[in-house]
């Protein structure tokens, strides 16, 4: 394992086909510094390229998924520095470079950039008492890693506007009720167990179909309905060219378990 190469994260394979990245900067509640994001991007690229991995879980500690971008790193930045170095832009690598499903398991604080990082993942599971929020307004700034756009798409304008203007936190229970998270669980242990179980299930399907499914669902967030439906149909048609679509349908007809070839 390449674990030892990382300082701010840990990488493991807790279940067959499941890669896990654990944010590990406990002294600052997993504040997302540039070096941490650089490691995260490298780990995700490695897992995405690994033929044995079918799904990726991103998590933090029971106390904090991530308490935001690193405020101490941001404090001295000038406009020119932020602008010319495209500060925060590399965070989006997560949404553009990773083709395998990325599941966020969120316990504790998911604030500011931490909330935005979770929102960049394909699926969020959380704990009832997790604390989500976009508190940037309290620092004299605004969300900068997609929060105003992704949170608004997830919860609607009324709630997003209230959350972003007040900086109020919302619970994991609310996140699940409002559609930010797919599910919430009573404890961190239960959260991890259920997230890994779901990831393992996804990793057991054809990688071609899984990647296509992730791609078409995410497209719904970018495209108008008519274009999205058209895009879905094109991708659906293209899967007639995959081996696994034949494998899956033949196995169904023969009442056999499909043996995916991932091709
Ligand atoms: N950045 C840096 N350090 C942090 C951060 C952070 N976001 N959050 C916590 N820490 C540090 C604290 O400074 C403290 O360090 P130290 O021990 O050296 O004093 C340590 O972590 C523990 O934190 P606390 O003592 O504060 O722990 P509490 O349990 O008392 O409080 C809270 C926990 C409520 C989570 C509190 O730490 C807090 O409010 N943190 C900041 C939350 C926040 O405002 N997040 C949003 C940051 S802004 C942002 O993410 C913008 C993203 C996009 C920017 C785009 C710009 C272009």
UniProtKB/TrEMBL annotation:
<dbReference type="InterPro" id="IPR018376">
    <property type="entry name" value="Enoyl-CoA_hyd/isom_CS"/>
</dbReference>
<dbReference type="GO" id="GO:0004300">
    <property type="term" value="F:enoyl-CoA hydratase activity"/>
</dbReference>
<keyword id="KW-0276">Fatty acid metabolism</keyword>
<dbReference type="InterPro" id="IPR029045">
    <property type="entry name" value="ClpP/crotonase-like_dom_sf"/>
</dbReference>
<dbReference type="GO" id="GO:0005739">
    <property type="term" value="C:mitochondrion"/>
</dbReference>
<dbReference type="InterPro" id="IPR014748">
    <property type="entry name" value="Enoyl-CoA_hydra_C"/>
</dbReference>
<dbReference type="Pfam" id="PF00378">
    <property type="entry name" value="ECH_1"/>
</dbReference>
<keyword id="KW-0443">Lipid metabolism</keyword>
<protein>
    <recommendedName>
        <fullName>Probable enoyl-CoA hydratase, mitochondrial</fullName>
        <ecNumber>4.2.1.17</ecNumber>
    </recommendedName>
</protein>
<comment type="similarity">
    <text>Belongs to the enoyl-CoA hydratase/isomerase family.</text>
</comment>
<dbReference type="GO" id="GO:0006635">
    <property type="term" value="P:fatty acid beta-oxidation"/>
</dbReference>
<keyword id="KW-0456">Lyase</keyword>
<dbReference type="InterPro" id="IPR001753">
    <property type="entry name" value="Enoyl-CoA_hydra/iso"/>
</dbReference>
